[in-house]
Amino acid sequence: MGRALSEALRDKPLFFEPVPPSSRAKATRATAEIDAVVALVRANPRIDALDIPELVDENHEGRPLYRTADPREYGRRLAERTVREVVVNKVVAHLDSPEAIERWASETVRMGLRHVVLVGGTSRYIPYPGPGVTEADRVCRPIVEAAGGLVGNITIPQRDGEPHRMLSKTRAGASFFTTQIVFDADSTFGMVREYDLLCRHASLPPAPVLLSFAPLVDDQDAEFIRWLGADVPEAVERAILEGEDGGNLRRSVDRALEVWTTVAERCRSADVEVPLGVNVEQISARHLDDARTFLDAFAERFAR
């Protein structure tokens, strides 16, 4: 049994974000993918929680096209077999009212899943039917807290005004944040430091922030990660992918460790009080072994 999420978030939490099986996958393949994730988690006792994404595409009107079955069923199966905390993501922009969000949260708790990450829509130009994330936090918080759970949100270090959004979401009930995939320490540290200052001025304890990292081992990964909305500096991409020794994965891991260490050391030097952690994203089915390498590397780093 791993640490309780509330305890883990105070001391370098390590999350793993596996990719749920495709809704079109045959039952045997889906079972094999779940078995592989279970084996990975059991082999790394330092993993505190499984962060289950909701994989959804949108048409030009912002209407959702779900690429997997209900991630809550996947999360429930993993929770039963790994005995780890499970956090389920939900894009609340696609729910048509606060009442719909309330129903989703209540149903999620009845399924035995008490921790959630609430996510907004992908475009600021689309008039989504659902409430914003801050309002969704207020709706969900009492429901999940009654079950002993926590509400989390996503944060984007490069987005203007992000620390102020984080403060508003913290006031509304967000107990932790996971970042978009990051490759740059400067913007990440700047966001965390300003959020810390805003929380001090508001006399509000800051929520932990988990930096998200993912394998970048070929051009396809770089394209996909950018499609997800993350910023991949061209210099970083070249440094990782243009080696001739086949060591792209090693360089990708080294870059993630470098970003983490730089942000953590700058925060420590600046007396920033925001607890920090790591969320490792698998990003695609073919990257499970690569994600394992990332998780092992961070588990080793946190043990020092």
CATH domain class: Alpha Beta
DSSP helix fraction: 40-55%
pLDDT < 50 runs, ≥5 residues: none
CATH fold type: TIM Barrel
Structurally, the number of domains stands at 1
Q: Tell me the radius of gyration.
A: 18 Å
Question: What integer is the average pLDDT?
Answer: 92
What's the main sheet like?
8 strands, parallel, barrel
Order of helices and strands: HEHEEEHEHEHEHEHEHHHEH
Supply the key terms.
304 residues, alpha/beta, TIM Barrel, eight-stranded parallel barrel, two-stranded antiparallel ribbon, 10 strands, 47% helix
Describe the structure.
This protein is of the alpha/beta class. The chain has a single domain, classed as Alpha-Beta Barrel (TIM Barrel), CATH 3.20.20. The protein has 11 helices and 10 strands. The strands form 2 sheets. The chain has an 8-stranded parallel beta barrel, surrounded by 5 helices. Strand 3 and strand 4 form a beta hairpin. Helix 2 packs across helix 3, helix 7 (185-201) runs parallel beside helix 10 and helix 9 (234-241) packs across helix 10 (248-269). It is globular and about 55 Å long.
Briefly, what is this?
The protein is 47% helix and 16% strand.
Describe the secondary structure blueprint for this structure.
Elements (H helix, E strand, L loop, with lengths): L4 H4 L5 E4 L9 H17 L5 E4 L3 E3 L5 E3 L4 H12 L2 E7 L6 H13 L4 E5 L13 H14 L4 E5 L6 H11 L1 E8 L3 H17 L7 E5 L5 H9 L6 H8 L6 H22 L6 E6 L6 H15 L2
Parallel strand pairs: 1-2, 1-10, 2-5, 5-6, 6-7, 7-8, 8-9, 9-10
Antiparallel strand pairs: 3-4
Helix pairs in contact: 2-3, 4-5, 6-7, 7-10, 9-10, 10-11
